[in-house]
Design goal:
Length: 455
């Protein structure tokens, strides 16, 4: 075997194992937002100099693993593992009240792994069809960013408020960038990280103010009732195709295949739409709920993968909510990766490498997260609830962000991250200005301010 291929395989498997193990654990902790966790760690391994195949393997295994283990708190405790799991909560709660939360969990994570296997080849195939239009898309990238920002803003919770703040936020970002440039610093990483952790900063500022503190205070610790763990298969590795019924497998394959072509829509929105369609097609409460959960988690996974893979393979510029958020470092990680001009995984890997190392990442997630979720969901939940402080995890990531900002621009970088985090977080939390809108505005801000104000 070629020495270079062996070298790439070792790095690809190693990166996937690292991402799979870390985020199999992170998925158990509710409230660990993907943009605030996957993005900083992906950025860290890029800056540490990992090879492209290891970076891609790390990200893919991290995302697929987290989408399986985030089903554990969602199904067993009734709290969403992260924002991607929110649409699943209603159906999972009904099954929990019926006394079969373990069935909800098995259907969800089995749907997720089936969805991932389907999404990767479909997304890469569709990306190769779009690739001939790459030069045209790159030439119009700033305008595409503006149009995409308007579309995402209008479809976000903030709607007209998001559109209204778009230009002021662009001016605000360019003001900070030009101040940093005057001090001979680049702050693109610091701004990205500030936007990513904005909601956390907003919570901290909310707690510091006596006027708003009551919004977050709780009178007593939350109580959770965990269902018993029941096992209906032999061995350590269950077969997801035996966990799903043939009808559920068919619906899951269909939903994942179609949603793998939609790379500009929100994964949460696609998941909700798939849930409503499947709910209207299946009769019988138990069959309807379990089938709906299988398909919804598969669609979450497939849309997520499509939103990363299609823009990355076809264009090399972030043109989807996921590409602008958790996957942002795969496109822009100065001074190593850039989308203007394009110099990132798009130029460093071939479509066949995306396919090979994507499947390796999914296989690693299947070997790490899937059996772990199926065999030890209850024990792991008890361990996390008793021993792991969510505040400690948040502090750990905030510390990582401080380190990365200091690495880029010293104290100026930290100041920029904090400023963006507070301002962007308040826009997100109180006005519904989604982080996707903020990221898209960031990438379009240079062109926008130049065209509008000549500066």
């Amino acid at each position: 075997m070629d020495a270079m291929l062996i070298h790439d395989l070792m790095w690809g498997v190693g990166g996937a194992l690292l991402g799979g193990i870390i985020f199999s654990f992170m998925g158990l902790i509710s409230g660990t937002d993907e943009t605030a966790t996957i993005a900083p760690l992906t950025l860290l391994i890029i800056l540490l100099g990992f090879p492209p195949v290891a970076i891609f393997g790390f990200f893919m295994a991290a995302a697929v693993s987290k989408h399986m283990t985030h089903a554990i708190p969602t199904a067993l405790m009734g709290v969403p593992g992260d924002t991607m799991a929110v649409p699943l909560l209603e159906h999972a709660n009904v099954l929990r009240r019926l006394g079969v939360p373990h069935m909800a969990l098995r259907k969800m994570i089995s749907g997720a792994i089936v969805g991932a296997v389907i999404a990767l080849p479909v997304s890469i195939g569709f990306a190769t069809l779009l690739a001939p239009f790459g030069d045209l898309v790159k030439a119009w990238a700033p305008i595409i960013f503006i149009i995409a920002a308007l579309i995402i803003a209008y479809t976000s919770k903030g709607k007209w408020a998001s559109i209204f703040v778009l230009i002021p936020f662009a001016v605000f970002l360019q003001g900070l960038i030009k101040m940093a440039v005057a001090a001979e610093h680049s702050v693109s990483i610091s701004i990205f990280l500030g936007i990513a952790i904005g909601p956390m900063f907003a919570d901290i500022v909310t707690l510091l103010s006596p006027v708003t503190r009551q919004m977050l205070l709780r009178k007593a610790p939350r109580e959770f009732w965990l269902a018993p763990e029941l096992k209906s298969w032999k061995g350590y590795f269950p077969n997801p195709l035996k966990i799903l019924s043939p009808k559920q497998t068919g619906f899951t394959l269909l939903g994942a295949g179609i949603s793998s072509l939609t790379f500009t829509f929100s994964p949460v929105g696609m998941t909700v739409m798939a849930g409503e369609i499947i709910s209207s097609k299946v009769k019988g409460t138990y069959q309807r709920l379990t089938t709906t959960l299988s398909v919804m988690n598969a669609v979450t996974e497939s849309t997520y993968i499509a939103e990363v893979v299609i823009p990355l393979v076809a264009f090399g510029i972030p043109l989807s909510p996921v590409a602008l958020g958790p996957a942002g470092p795969l496109f822009n990680a100065a001074p190593i990766f850039s989308s203007d001009p394009v110099n990132n995984l798009h130029t460093l890997m071939t479509p066949s490498q995306f396919m090979l190392f994507g499947f390796i990442s999914i296989l690693v997630a299947y070997l790490v997260a899937y059996p772990f979720s199926m065999n030890y969901a209850r024990k792991a939940s008890v361990m996390v609830l008793k021993n792991i402080s969510q505040e400690a995890i948040i502090c750990m990531f905030m510390g990582l962000i401080i380190v990365l900002s200091f690495y880029e621009a010293g104290l100026v970088g930290i100041l920029v991250s904090l400023t963006i985090g507070i301002f962007g977080g308040i826009l997100n939390k109180f006005f519904g200005v989604h982080t996707g809108v903020q990221f898209m505005t960031f990438y379009a801000s240079s062109w926008l301010v130049l065209q509008l104000f000549g500066i």
